[in-house]
Description:
This protein is of the alpha/beta class and 393 residues long. It has two domains: 6-47 and 290-392, Aspartate Aminotransferase, domain 1 (Alpha-Beta Complex), CATH 3.90.1150; 66-284, Type I PLP-dependent aspartate aminotransferase-like (Major domain) (Aspartate Aminotransferase, domain 2), CATH 3.40.640. The protein contains 13 helices and twelve strands. The chain has a seven-stranded mixed sheet with strand order 2-8-7-6-5-3-4, sandwiched between helices. The longest helix has 21 residues, at 289-309. It is globular. It comes from Thermohalobaculum xanthum. Pfam families: Aminotran_1_2.
Amino acid sequence: MAQLSQRISGIVGQGGDDGWSVYYRARELAxxxxxxxxLTVGDHDIKTDPAILxxxxxxxxxxxxxxxxxxxxxxxxxxxxxxxxxxTMHPARPAEVxxxxxxxxxxxxxxxxxxxPGQSCVVLxxxxxxYVQTVRAAGGRAxxxxxxxxxxxxxxxxxxxxxxxxxxRAILLNxxxxxxxxxxxxxxxxxxADLCRRRDLWLISDEVYDVQVHVGRHASPxxxxxxxxxxxxxxxxxxxxxxxxxxxxxxxxxxxxIARMGELATTTxxxxxxxxxxxxxxxxxxxxxxxxxxxxxxxxxxxxxxxSLGNARAVRANAPAGGMYxxxxxxxxxxxxxxxxxxxxxxxxxxxxxxESFGTAAAGHLRVALTRxxxxxxxxxxxxxxxxxxxxx
Length: 393
Protein backbone atom coordinates (compact mmCIF):
# COMPACT_ATOMS: atom_id res chain seq x y z
CA MET A 1 0.00 0.00 0.00
CA ALA A 2 1.20 3.50 -0.76
CA GLN A 3 2.22 5.61 2.22
CA LEU A 4 -0.49 7.58 4.00
CA SER A 5 -0.11 11.23 4.91
CA GLN A 6 1.48 12.22 8.19
CA ARG A 7 -1.64 14.22 9.03
CA ILE A 8 -4.05 11.30 8.92
CA SER A 9 -1.57 8.89 10.44
CA GLY A 10 -0.99 11.24 13.35
CA ILE A 11 -4.62 11.96 14.32
CA VAL A 12 -4.63 9.49 17.21
CA GLY A 13 -0.98 10.08 18.08
CA GLN A 14 1.76 7.76 19.17
CA GLY A 15 0.70 4.68 21.08
CA GLY A 16 -2.41 4.14 18.96
CA ASP A 17 -4.91 4.28 21.88
CA ASP A 18 -7.69 6.75 21.12
CA GLY A 19 -9.10 6.52 24.66
CA TRP A 20 -12.11 4.40 23.77
CA SER A 21 -10.77 0.92 24.60
CA VAL A 22 -13.24 0.26 27.43
CA TYR A 23 -16.14 1.37 25.27
CA TYR A 24 -15.06 -0.84 22.36
CA ARG A 25 -14.68 -3.87 24.61
CA ALA A 26 -18.02 -3.25 26.29
CA ARG A 27 -19.70 -3.09 22.89
CA GLU A 28 -18.12 -6.39 21.89
CA LEU A 29 -19.29 -8.05 25.11
CA ALA A 30 -22.81 -6.70 24.69
CA UNK A 31 -22.97 -7.89 21.08
CA UNK A 32 -21.84 -11.33 22.26
CA UNK A 33 -24.84 -11.49 24.59
CA UNK A 34 -23.36 -10.43 27.91
CA UNK A 35 -25.55 -8.16 30.07
CA UNK A 36 -23.67 -4.86 30.09
CA UNK A 37 -24.82 -1.62 31.70
CA UNK A 38 -23.52 0.99 29.23
CA LEU A 39 -22.66 4.26 30.97
CA THR A 40 -19.99 5.31 28.49
CA VAL A 41 -21.05 7.66 25.71
CA GLY A 42 -23.44 10.59 25.90
CA ASP A 43 -26.13 9.05 23.70
CA HIS A 44 -29.64 9.41 25.08
CA ASP A 45 -31.75 6.46 26.17
CA ILE A 46 -34.81 8.38 24.99
CA LYS A 47 -35.98 8.87 21.43
CA THR A 48 -36.18 12.11 19.52
CA ASP A 49 -39.55 13.75 20.17
CA PRO A 50 -42.14 12.14 17.84
CA ALA A 51 -43.28 15.55 16.59
CA ILE A 52 -39.75 16.30 15.34
CA LEU A 53 -39.61 12.93 13.60
CA UNK A 54 -43.02 13.63 12.04
CA UNK A 55 -41.65 16.92 10.67
CA UNK A 56 -38.68 15.04 9.22
CA UNK A 57 -40.92 12.43 7.59
CA UNK A 58 -43.26 15.09 6.20
CA UNK A 59 -40.29 16.87 4.64
CA UNK A 60 -39.15 13.64 3.01
CA UNK A 61 -42.61 12.98 1.62
CA UNK A 62 -42.74 16.52 0.22
CA UNK A 63 -39.60 15.63 -1.70
CA UNK A 64 -36.89 17.62 0.09
CA UNK A 65 -34.32 15.01 -0.91
CA UNK A 66 -32.03 16.92 -3.27
CA UNK A 67 -28.82 18.79 -2.72
CA UNK A 68 -29.27 21.22 0.18
CA UNK A 69 -27.85 24.75 0.40
CA UNK A 70 -24.26 24.13 1.52
CA UNK A 71 -24.35 26.87 4.15
CA UNK A 72 -27.71 25.71 5.45
CA UNK A 73 -31.27 26.51 4.47
CA UNK A 74 -32.43 30.09 4.88
CA UNK A 75 -35.15 28.96 7.29
CA UNK A 76 -32.73 27.07 9.54
CA UNK A 77 -30.08 29.79 9.60
CA UNK A 78 -32.82 32.26 10.53
CA UNK A 79 -34.18 29.98 13.27
CA UNK A 80 -30.71 29.52 14.75
CA UNK A 81 -30.01 33.25 14.66
CA UNK A 82 -33.33 33.93 16.39
CA UNK A 83 -32.53 31.36 19.08
CA UNK A 84 -29.15 32.96 19.75
CA UNK A 85 -30.59 36.49 19.74
CA UNK A 86 -33.31 35.53 22.22
CA UNK A 87 -30.94 33.83 24.67
CA THR A 88 -27.83 35.98 24.63
CA MET A 89 -27.03 39.67 24.89
CA HIS A 90 -25.40 39.90 21.47
CA PRO A 91 -27.84 39.39 18.56
CA ALA A 92 -27.02 37.14 15.63
CA ARG A 93 -27.81 37.32 11.91
CA PRO A 94 -28.43 34.37 9.57
CA ALA A 95 -25.27 35.26 7.61
CA GLU A 96 -23.30 34.52 10.80
CA VAL A 97 -24.50 30.90 10.90
CA UNK A 98 -23.00 27.88 9.12
CA UNK A 99 -25.05 24.69 9.39
CA UNK A 100 -22.91 21.58 9.87
CA UNK A 101 -23.54 17.82 10.27
CA UNK A 102 -23.22 17.80 14.06
CA UNK A 103 -21.06 19.55 16.61
CA UNK A 104 -17.99 17.45 15.78
CA UNK A 105 -18.01 18.73 12.19
CA UNK A 106 -18.42 22.22 13.62
CA UNK A 107 -15.31 21.82 15.76
CA UNK A 108 -13.30 20.65 12.77
CA UNK A 109 -14.54 23.57 10.64
CA UNK A 110 -13.73 26.08 13.39
CA UNK A 111 -10.21 24.73 13.78
CA UNK A 112 -9.56 24.69 10.03
CA UNK A 113 -10.78 28.28 9.90
CA UNK A 114 -8.46 29.49 12.67
CA UNK A 115 -5.27 27.40 12.37
CA UNK A 116 -2.71 27.26 9.62
CA PRO A 117 -0.70 24.01 9.45
CA GLY A 118 1.57 23.66 12.48
CA GLN A 119 -0.04 26.45 14.50
CA SER A 120 -1.25 25.71 18.01
CA CYS A 121 -4.54 25.76 19.87
CA VAL A 122 -4.96 25.65 23.65
CA VAL A 123 -7.06 22.74 24.89
CA LEU A 124 -8.06 22.50 28.55
CA UNK A 125 -7.54 19.15 30.28
CA UNK A 126 -9.81 17.25 30.95
CA UNK A 127 -11.21 17.63 27.45
CA UNK A 128 -13.80 15.94 25.31
CA UNK A 129 -12.14 12.85 23.90
CA UNK A 130 -11.91 14.09 20.30
CA TYR A 131 -10.49 17.58 20.93
CA VAL A 132 -6.77 16.90 20.61
CA GLN A 133 -7.38 14.56 17.69
CA THR A 134 -9.48 17.17 15.91
CA VAL A 135 -6.74 19.78 16.33
CA ARG A 136 -4.33 17.32 14.71
CA ALA A 137 -6.80 16.48 11.95
CA ALA A 138 -7.02 20.19 11.16
CA GLY A 139 -3.22 20.32 10.81
CA GLY A 140 -2.66 22.05 14.14
CA ARG A 141 -0.84 21.33 17.37
CA ALA A 142 -2.62 21.09 20.71
CA UNK A 143 -1.21 22.84 23.79
CA UNK A 144 -2.83 20.98 26.66
CA UNK A 145 -3.31 23.05 29.83
CA UNK A 146 -4.38 21.07 32.91
CA UNK A 147 -7.06 21.98 35.41
CA UNK A 148 -7.23 20.64 38.95
CA UNK A 149 -9.86 18.34 40.43
CA UNK A 150 -9.42 20.06 43.78
CA UNK A 151 -10.56 23.33 42.14
CA UNK A 152 -13.59 21.75 40.52
CA UNK A 153 -11.69 21.57 37.21
CA UNK A 154 -12.02 25.34 36.79
CA UNK A 155 -9.23 26.65 34.51
CA UNK A 156 -6.80 29.39 35.50
CA UNK A 157 -6.32 32.22 33.02
CA UNK A 158 -2.74 32.78 34.22
CA UNK A 159 -1.89 29.14 33.56
CA UNK A 160 -3.38 29.40 30.06
CA UNK A 161 -1.39 32.55 29.28
CA UNK A 162 1.83 30.98 30.54
CA UNK A 163 1.31 28.06 28.14
CA UNK A 164 0.81 30.19 25.01
CA UNK A 165 3.35 29.78 22.23
CA UNK A 166 4.29 32.34 19.55
CA UNK A 167 2.23 30.34 17.05
CA UNK A 168 -0.89 29.99 19.23
CA ARG A 169 -3.96 31.15 17.32
CA ALA A 170 -6.93 29.85 19.33
CA ILE A 171 -8.26 28.70 22.70
CA LEU A 172 -10.88 25.95 22.78
CA LEU A 173 -13.39 26.16 25.65
CA ASN A 174 -16.27 23.88 26.60
CA UNK A 175 -18.74 25.05 29.24
CA UNK A 176 -20.77 23.32 30.57
CA UNK A 177 -17.86 20.94 30.32
CA UNK A 178 -17.67 17.39 29.10
CA UNK A 179 -16.43 15.32 30.93
CA UNK A 180 -16.29 17.22 34.23
CA UNK A 181 -19.65 18.97 34.34
CA UNK A 182 -17.92 22.21 35.34
CA UNK A 183 -19.66 25.47 34.44
CA UNK A 184 -16.97 28.10 34.08
CA UNK A 185 -17.29 31.09 36.39
CA UNK A 186 -18.08 34.51 34.83
CA UNK A 187 -14.85 36.08 36.10
CA UNK A 188 -12.87 33.25 34.48
CA UNK A 189 -14.58 33.85 31.13
CA UNK A 190 -13.82 37.56 31.48
CA UNK A 191 -10.14 36.80 32.12
CA UNK A 192 -9.91 34.45 29.13
CA ALA A 193 -11.67 37.00 26.91
CA ASP A 194 -9.18 39.63 28.03
CA LEU A 195 -6.36 37.25 27.14
CA CYS A 196 -7.83 36.69 23.67
CA ARG A 197 -8.12 40.41 23.07
CA ARG A 198 -4.60 41.17 24.27
CA ARG A 199 -2.95 38.34 22.37
CA ASP A 200 -5.16 38.53 19.25
CA LEU A 201 -6.51 34.99 19.64
CA TRP A 202 -9.64 33.24 18.44
CA LEU A 203 -11.92 31.69 21.05
CA ILE A 204 -13.70 28.51 19.98
CA SER A 205 -16.60 27.98 22.37
CA ASP A 206 -18.22 24.52 22.42
CA GLU A 207 -21.68 25.17 23.89
CA VAL A 208 -23.55 21.95 23.09
CA TYR A 209 -24.65 21.64 26.74
CA ASP A 210 -25.80 25.26 27.04
CA VAL A 211 -29.34 24.33 28.16
CA GLN A 212 -28.23 21.58 30.56
CA VAL A 213 -27.12 23.70 33.51
CA HIS A 214 -28.01 22.32 36.94
CA VAL A 215 -26.32 24.94 39.11
CA GLY A 216 -25.92 28.59 38.06
CA ARG A 217 -26.44 29.71 34.48
CA HIS A 218 -24.74 29.39 31.12
CA ALA A 219 -22.83 32.39 29.78
CA SER A 220 -21.46 32.55 26.25
CA PRO A 221 -18.08 34.31 25.93
CA UNK A 222 -19.35 35.74 22.63
CA UNK A 223 -21.42 38.15 24.72
CA UNK A 224 -18.38 39.75 26.34
CA UNK A 225 -17.08 43.12 25.06
CA UNK A 226 -15.06 42.82 21.87
CA UNK A 227 -15.54 39.05 21.58
CA UNK A 228 -18.23 38.67 18.90
CA UNK A 229 -15.60 39.32 16.22
CA UNK A 230 -13.16 36.69 17.53
CA UNK A 231 -15.46 33.94 18.87
CA UNK A 232 -16.70 30.87 16.99
CA UNK A 233 -19.56 29.18 18.86
CA UNK A 234 -20.17 25.49 18.13
CA UNK A 235 -23.58 24.08 19.01
CA UNK A 236 -26.00 21.37 17.93
CA UNK A 237 -29.35 19.74 18.65
CA UNK A 238 -27.73 16.46 19.68
CA UNK A 239 -27.96 17.03 23.44
CA UNK A 240 -30.67 19.68 23.73
CA UNK A 241 -33.25 17.82 21.58
CA UNK A 242 -32.01 14.19 21.73
CA UNK A 243 -31.08 14.29 18.03
CA UNK A 244 -27.61 12.72 18.17
CA UNK A 245 -28.14 10.51 15.12
CA UNK A 246 -29.59 13.29 13.02
CA UNK A 247 -26.17 15.01 12.89
CA UNK A 248 -27.36 18.60 12.85
CA UNK A 249 -25.44 21.52 14.33
CA UNK A 250 -24.00 24.92 13.55
CA UNK A 251 -21.11 27.32 13.93
CA UNK A 252 -21.85 30.93 14.83
CA UNK A 253 -19.21 33.55 14.10
CA UNK A 254 -18.20 36.67 12.17
CA UNK A 255 -19.72 36.79 8.71
CA UNK A 256 -16.39 36.63 6.87
CA UNK A 257 -15.33 33.52 8.79
CA ILE A 258 -18.69 31.85 8.18
CA ALA A 259 -18.41 32.56 4.45
CA ARG A 260 -15.07 30.76 4.36
CA MET A 261 -16.60 27.81 6.26
CA GLY A 262 -19.21 27.57 3.53
CA GLU A 263 -16.36 27.09 1.07
CA LEU A 264 -14.94 24.36 3.33
CA ALA A 265 -18.34 22.64 3.40
CA THR A 266 -18.41 22.65 -0.39
CA THR A 267 -15.23 20.57 -0.40
CA THR A 268 -16.18 18.25 2.49
CA UNK A 269 -19.75 17.60 3.63
CA UNK A 270 -21.61 19.43 0.85
CA UNK A 271 -24.32 20.29 3.33
CA UNK A 272 -26.87 18.54 5.56
CA UNK A 273 -29.91 16.75 4.09
CA UNK A 274 -32.82 19.11 3.63
CA UNK A 275 -35.34 16.94 5.50
CA UNK A 276 -33.07 16.98 8.58
CA UNK A 277 -32.76 20.74 8.34
CA UNK A 278 -36.54 21.04 8.12
CA UNK A 279 -36.89 18.92 11.25
CA UNK A 280 -34.36 21.16 12.99
CA UNK A 281 -36.38 24.25 12.04
CA UNK A 282 -39.45 22.63 13.56
CA UNK A 283 -37.54 21.72 16.73
CA UNK A 284 -36.17 25.22 17.19
CA UNK A 285 -39.54 26.87 16.71
CA UNK A 286 -41.36 24.79 19.34
CA UNK A 287 -40.13 26.82 22.29
CA UNK A 288 -38.14 25.48 25.21
CA UNK A 289 -40.47 22.70 26.34
CA UNK A 290 -38.62 19.81 24.70
CA UNK A 291 -35.15 20.85 25.81
CA UNK A 292 -36.30 21.73 29.33
CA UNK A 293 -37.79 18.25 29.74
CA UNK A 294 -34.51 16.65 28.64
CA UNK A 295 -32.47 18.89 30.94
CA UNK A 296 -34.76 18.06 33.88
CA UNK A 297 -34.31 14.36 33.22
CA UNK A 298 -30.53 14.64 33.54
CA UNK A 299 -30.76 16.93 36.56
CA UNK A 300 -32.83 14.32 38.39
CA UNK A 301 -30.44 11.54 37.40
CA UNK A 302 -27.49 13.62 38.56
CA UNK A 303 -29.14 14.06 41.95
CA UNK A 304 -29.92 10.35 42.15
CA UNK A 305 -26.30 9.40 41.46
CA UNK A 306 -24.95 11.83 44.04
CA UNK A 307 -27.45 10.48 46.58
CA SER A 308 -26.48 6.88 45.77
CA LEU A 309 -22.82 7.60 46.50
CA GLY A 310 -23.60 8.90 49.96
CA ASN A 311 -20.48 9.12 52.10
CA ALA A 312 -18.51 6.46 50.24
CA ARG A 313 -14.81 6.81 50.97
CA ALA A 314 -13.41 4.89 48.02
CA VAL A 315 -15.46 6.86 45.48
CA ARG A 316 -15.93 10.62 45.61
CA ALA A 317 -18.08 12.62 43.23
CA ASN A 318 -17.21 15.92 41.62
CA ALA A 319 -20.78 17.23 41.65
CA PRO A 320 -21.45 18.48 38.10
CA ALA A 321 -22.98 21.90 37.60
CA GLY A 322 -24.10 21.00 34.08
CA GLY A 323 -24.12 18.37 31.36
CA MET A 324 -25.16 14.73 31.41
CA TYR A 325 -22.23 13.09 33.20
CA UNK A 326 -20.78 12.67 36.68
CA UNK A 327 -17.04 12.43 37.30
CA UNK A 328 -16.02 10.03 40.06
CA UNK A 329 -12.69 10.19 41.88
CA UNK A 330 -11.55 6.60 42.54
CA UNK A 331 -7.95 7.45 43.50
CA UNK A 332 -8.46 6.00 47.01
CA UNK A 333 -8.55 2.56 45.36
CA UNK A 334 -4.97 2.97 44.17
CA UNK A 335 -5.97 2.14 40.58
CA UNK A 336 -5.85 4.28 37.49
CA UNK A 337 -9.19 5.10 35.93
CA UNK A 338 -8.30 2.84 33.00
CA UNK A 339 -7.48 -0.18 35.17
CA UNK A 340 -10.52 0.36 37.37
CA UNK A 341 -12.85 0.67 34.36
CA UNK A 342 -11.58 -2.56 32.77
CA UNK A 343 -11.82 -4.46 36.05
CA UNK A 344 -15.29 -3.07 36.75
CA UNK A 345 -16.42 -4.20 33.31
CA UNK A 346 -15.11 -7.73 33.93
CA UNK A 347 -16.42 -8.06 37.48
CA UNK A 348 -19.75 -6.24 37.34
CA UNK A 349 -20.64 -5.79 33.67
CA UNK A 350 -20.72 -2.01 34.11
CA UNK A 351 -19.05 0.09 31.40
CA UNK A 352 -17.82 3.61 32.22
CA UNK A 353 -15.24 5.87 30.62
CA UNK A 354 -11.86 6.14 32.38
CA UNK A 355 -10.75 9.66 33.18
CA GLU A 356 -7.59 9.08 31.18
CA SER A 357 -9.71 9.05 28.02
CA PHE A 358 -10.03 12.81 28.50
CA GLY A 359 -6.41 13.72 29.18
CA THR A 360 -4.13 13.39 32.20
CA ALA A 361 -5.79 15.81 34.64
CA ALA A 362 -8.63 13.32 35.22
CA ALA A 363 -6.33 10.33 35.85
CA GLY A 364 -7.77 8.22 38.64
CA HIS A 365 -11.31 9.30 37.76
CA LEU A 366 -14.26 7.81 35.89
CA ARG A 367 -16.89 9.51 33.77
CA VAL A 368 -20.37 8.07 34.21
CA ALA A 369 -22.91 8.95 31.53
CA LEU A 370 -26.38 9.53 32.95
CA THR A 371 -27.95 7.78 29.99
CA ARG A 372 -29.92 5.04 31.75
CA UNK A 373 -33.10 5.20 33.86
CA UNK A 374 -32.73 6.33 37.45
CA UNK A 375 -33.28 2.86 38.93
CA UNK A 376 -30.55 1.39 36.71
CA UNK A 377 -28.15 4.20 37.66
CA UNK A 378 -28.77 3.72 41.38
CA UNK A 379 -28.14 -0.03 41.12
CA UNK A 380 -25.02 0.41 38.98
CA UNK A 381 -23.54 3.07 41.27
CA UNK A 382 -24.21 0.93 44.32
CA UNK A 383 -22.35 -1.98 42.74
CA UNK A 384 -19.55 0.34 41.61
CA UNK A 385 -19.10 1.66 45.17
CA UNK A 386 -19.06 -1.86 46.61
CA UNK A 387 -16.46 -2.89 44.03
CA UNK A 388 -14.30 0.12 44.86
CA UNK A 389 -14.62 -0.58 48.58
CA UNK A 390 -13.40 -4.14 48.10
CA UNK A 391 -10.39 -2.94 46.11
CA UNK A 392 -9.54 -0.22 48.61
CA UNK A 393 -9.72 -2.70 51.46
